[in-house]
Design a protein that fits this description.
This protein is an alpha+beta fold. The chain has two domains: 87 residues, Periplasmic binding protein-like II (D-Maltodextrin-Binding Protein, domain 2), CATH 3.40.190.10; 89 residues, Periplasmic binding protein-like II (D-Maltodextrin-Binding Protein, domain 2, 3-Layer(aba) Sandwich). Helix content is 34%, strand content 28%. Strand 3, helix 3 and strand 4 form a beta-alpha-beta unit. Helix 1 crosses helix 6. The radius of gyration is 18 Å and the shape is elongated. It starts with a helix and ends with a helix.
Length: 182
């Protein structure tokens, strides 16, 4: 989102852009009420986003990483470890991923703050799963991120209502698509 916002500022200097950080369900509620024009939301495998009246443009798949103090770590090495969980939706994904690996994670701490999660891992208080985009924004040098094969979340740009989109919305969607890459 920051790269798209910077591109919009350069290419459309008269466009006024306001950013709000919300979880997907709350962002879609704001979109439906008309409080937002575009929402960037994520969707874990098997999770459903409400579709009634929404239009979604897939932007990218964001790989999920095991966060620990050990390089080249494995999920199954932590079947008895303390885990740091996040929001309800992220917790459901953690349960599903660990369940496919044959265990139920023992949640010792909860935080939605990616910096706090990394600090807890660095302090030896547990392991966690974080998305790659969060690690691009902040990655402590004293922790290790091991990509979990086949585990990712889908990133979408969402709008509400029938097309065509107003020019400003179309510009935002184009900028998001451009920075997301092929």
């Amino acid at each position: 989102v920051p790269k798209a916002a910077a591109a919009l500022a350069r290419e459309h200097p008269g466009l006024e852009l306001s950013l709000v950080d919300e979880h997907p369900v709350e962002a879609l509620d704001l979109l439906r009420r008309g409080d937002l024009d575009v929402a960037v939301v994520f969707q874990h495998a098997g999770a459903r986003l409400e579709e009634d009246g929404f239009r979604f443009r897939h932007l990218a798949d964001d790989p999920i990483h095991l966060i620990s103090r050990h390089p080249a770590d494995t999920l199954t090495a932590h079947r008895d470890s303390a885990w740091i969980g996040g929001c309800d939706r992220c917790g459901a994904e953690l349960d599903a991923v660990c369940g496919r690996a044959g265990f139920t994670p023992r949640i010792a701490s909860l935080s939605d703050d990616m910096v706090v999660v990394q600090s807890l891992v660095a302090a030896g208080l547990g392991v966690a799963m974080l998305p790659g985009l969060a690690l691009e924004a902040h990655h402590r040098p004293d922790i290790h991120a091991t990509e979990l094969p086949g585990v990712h979340r889908r990133i979408h740009a969402a709008t509400y209502g029938d097309p065509p989109d107003p020019p400003a919305v179309a510009a935002v969607l184009a900028a998001l698509t451009a920075v997301a890459g092929p």
